[in-house]
Amino acid sequence: MTTAAVTTTTFAVEGMTCGCCVGKVRDKVGSIPGVTAVTVDLDGGTVTVQGADPVERGAVADAVERAGFRLAD
Ligand SMILES: [Cu+2]
Question: Is residue 39 part of a domain?
Fold first, then answer.
């Protein structure tokens, strides 16, 4: 039997200030292979990534940096 497991991981992002920041982060993180859904919380400063397999922090960090931000430590 195969179960369609979904893994959800939340990362803290520094520097997002408005809706355009949210859009940039969502676009870049959403383009990571294997990512099926991205939720960005501007007030909380987090990005929540959903995929069939756990998404590596390094891949998310790269994508967030390409969007112009960085993950909080
Ligand atoms: Cu912005």
Answer: yes
